[in-house]
Amino acid sequence: MTVWLGTTIKFDAASTYPIGLLIATLLVMIMIVAARLLHEHTPTVEEPKITTILAALSYGIYLYHWPLFVIFSRLLNSGQAIAATLALSLSFAALSVYVIEPLIAGKTHLRHNSLAVAGVFVIAAALTVVTGRQVQAAPALSQLDTTLWTEGIQQDIAQYRRAKPEIVAAHTPRQTAAETRLAQSRAAAAQAAKGDPHGYQAQNHQSTAAAHHIPAGVSIIGDSVTLGTASYLSAHVANALVDAEGDRTMNQAVSLVAQQQQAGTLREFVVIACGTNSLADYAKVLQQLLDTLEPGHKLVLVTPYNGKAQSDWNSSKLTVLERALPASHDWVTLADWATTAAAHPHVFKGTDGVHFGGHQDGNVLFAQTINDALIAAAKKPAKK
User: Which InterPro entries does the record match to this protein (predicted)?
Assistant: First the structure.
């Protein structure tokens, strides 16, 4: 059963984590109980020697294997790294169980195991040297990592600054708090429209947000790609509130949309940029997003881009599905970042082909793609 689970349950399937891991845990419990019952009902039967040895070494192997594999995987190919890891994990586990632990417990004396102890120190010294060389040769923090860290901190600061009015609103009668938010958002929208007569808010003649008590402006919900350009988006997309987080999936975005709607903070234009981490249920989750958004909103979908993606990847399939939606949903607009990004590969130079964090041209292109889509969305009706 365990082998079957390992070969059939996929990493990118949403059911793997709540269901697959639960099944695996239950199977382990059954194995433990079965082993215990077998032991109690066969008191006169000795276990095979190899089973006893492996049982004694198992925890040591568990402790040692990962750091060893991390080291060897950088120096050797996969097969060699696995072989070296297995050999040394077994060796260290045996030394721990049969030499070091008895020494610590006072069950044996150093002079009886001096050769084994010397071997331990020699191997440990060699591994220390190898580890030191790897640390010294490791690359410094990349520009992408730096950008994601700093953007995350800046977003946290912005959220902290918004905390006070949100706390005040939470202790204000609901109707009064909602009216205050609406008044503030409309004032900001009017100011933005006056400042940019060609922007999306100046074109938003078919808006029904006021009738549905929806704050004006844009809610941008994204993953790490959006996080890498969050500050730029906040400054260059009028009246926008950015909420981005690394590794965010579409279903997490849907949950956030529902939470913000419930709180009355989700703005009229909803920009979703979360397709990079698509799971196998991408079509179902996208439909949930369409169903979750309440009347009065206008949805903008940002297609994901991955320079290494194949046509059978979930993110690629999601892009195809998103491109087809505006034809059947007049309140949905496409911000085709996948097409724009593919036409400007220079913004991904030195990156993983997904993030452009730190490349100013990428910031400009991403914001322009969203702004163009917002202008197109402003000219279309809202969800009814």
Answer: SGNH_hydro_sf (IPR036514)
Please state, in angstroms and rounded to a whole number, the distance separating the CA atoms of residues 36 and 42.
10
Q: Is the pLDDT of residue 176 over 80?
A: no
Domain definitions of the chain by residue range: 2-137, 143-378
d(CA 26, CA 24): 5
Q: For residues 101 and 234, give the distance between their C-alpha atoms in angstroms, rounded to a whole number.
A: 58
What 3-state DSSP class applies to 273? strand
Q: What is the pLDDT of residues 264-286, one digit of tens each?
A: 889 999 999 998 888 888 999 99
Nearest by Cα to 241 from 252, 254, 226: 226
Which residues, in sequence order, are CB contacts of 210 under 8 Å at separation 6+?
A: 182, 186
Query: Largest Cα–Cα distance of the chain, in whole Å?
Result: 90
What whole-number distance in Å separates Cα of residue 43 and Cα of residue 150? 62
- CB burial of residue 121 (10 Å; 0-12, 13-18, 19+): exposed
Q: Scan for tokens 């994204």, then name that residue.
A: 222
Q: Is the pLDDT of residue 25 over 60?
A: yes
Do the Cβ atoms of 250 and 289 come closer than 8 Å? yes
Degrees, nearest 5: CA angle 277-152-138? 80
Q: Taking all residues of the chain, what is their mean pLDDT, rounded to a whole number?
A: 84
Contacts of 310-313 spanning 24+ positions with Cβ under 8 A: 313/278
What is the per-residue pLDDT for 181? 53
Q: How far is CA 253 from CA 13, 95, 256, 329, 383, in A?
A: 17, 50, 5, 20, 19
Query: pTM for the full model?
Result: 0.65
Q: Is the pLDDT of residue 11 over 70?
A: no
Q: Which amino acid is at 163?
A: A
**Both structure tokens of 34:** 């079965």
- Would you state the structure tokens that stand for residue 161, as one six-digit string? 């600054």
Can you give the pLDDT at residue 367?
A: 96
Q: Are 279 and 228 in contact (CB under 8 A)?
A: no
Q: Per CATH, which fold does 143-378 belong to?
A: Rossmann fold (3.40.50)
The tens digit of pLDDT for each residue in 360-371 reads 999 999 999 999
Q: Hey, how many other C-beta atoms are within 10 angstroms of the C-beta on 327? A: 8
